[in-house]
Structures are given as C-alpha cells and as structure tokens.
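Friendly challenge for the regulars: who can give me the structure tokens for this chain first? No prize, just bragging rights.
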Amino acid sequence: MDCPEFRRRLLIDPAAPELGVAANARVCPDAPARLAEALAFEDGLDRALKVDVPADLVERVIKATREEDVPPLRLVRWQPFALAASLLLAVAVGVMVWPGVRSPTDQLIFAGIEHIAHEPYALTRSETVPQPLIARMFADAGLRVDDAAIDLTYLNRCPLGERLSVHMVMPGRNGPVTVLYVPEERGIDRMDTRSEMVAVRTMPFADGALLLLAESNQDFDRIESAWRAAVGEQVAGL
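First reply, four minutes later:
Bragging rights claimed.
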C-alpha cells in the first residue's frame, strides 16, 4: 500500500487492520498521526451518538418550550461532532423519505450528504491546502481555476456514487462549508434547501455542478462568488 492509497482508505474505514500495518510501515511520513487522528474522531463520534433518547422526548420539549423561547438558528454554533451527527441523521431520514425520488438534483444532494457523513473528520482540518495542489487537482478534473480567491482546509478526489467529485472544505464565519464539484453532471437545478439540520445549495457550474453543505447557509453567497470569480468566463451567463 502506498501513501495515496493509505490516505484514500483512511477516509473510508480508519479501523481497517491493514491501515495499522501501513501506518507502522510509515507509507506516509505522517501516517501514524493521521491514523490516530481518524481513530480518535471515530471513537468520539461513536460516543457522541450513543445517547439514550427518552420515549416521550418530543412531548416533553413541546410542553416545556414556547415558540418565542427558541433562540434564532443563527446563534447556534455547532462543533464538527454535532454536524457529523446531523449528517448521519440526514442520511437515515433520507433513506426513509426519499426512496422514490429520482430527480438529478435530489440524487446529487443525497449522494453528497451520504458521502460526507462518512468522512466527518474532513470538517476538523485546519491546515490550508497549498495553492499549487488546488490548481493541479482541478486541472485533473478538467477545470482551470484561479486559486487566488480559494481558501481550502481539505481537498480530495472522491467517488460520489458513480461520479468522481472534487471534495473540498472551506472555512466559514458560521463553521466549515463542504463544497463538492462534480464534472459533467447534467440536469442540476439551482436550489437552496435543508435536509434535516444541513443547509444545502445546488447549482449548475462550469462543466458540471456545485454542491454546498453546511450548518448554515449564511456563507453560501460569499463562497459561490469566490468560485465564480475563480473560474471567470467559464461560468459567464450561468
């Protein structure tokens, strides 16, 4: 197993035994640290999700809370564990309520949420991705990017169902924003919506589609503008 394969498989199943062997062999210089980070996150997420919910929780909340007592959503600041848990919830709910939905936009939304629900530690990264790597990654995806306006803390080429996407995380004032660029994706509508506690924006973009997902949509306009500026005339008129 080489370093790129180690990093790819680390995003899929950090607990796989062969990753421990590869980390001990230092297939990447930082392989042991990356594996420890991923396993710690998985353990923390498991513990965060193991919460006993009272059977009468809904009734108790309704009884105890008046509508005017609920703080505005914009004041709620989630941590990555909570956002990851909400993504898992969105996937679970989507399986139940979207089984017959087949529009390209809905399929893209569900595939994106499902994908990042299984890569939640991407939301915890804080190091800035080097600009040459951004340009090279998008060149491989067939898109020229002026990376001066793009600030990423995570970047990877990831399968998205039968598609191959560019999976990114950008810092936002209201928490990290996941950005998925899917080349050659057709039939995508421009739409703002929510899936459970996850804000979503889809749009046709360049030669494909762009999908934004976050706790809040308050950073979406700024991030969309940054990407439109980054690809310039390639999205003129969209």
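The CA atoms of residues 53 and 60 lie 12 Å apart. The longest helix spans residues 31-49. Your move, everyone else.
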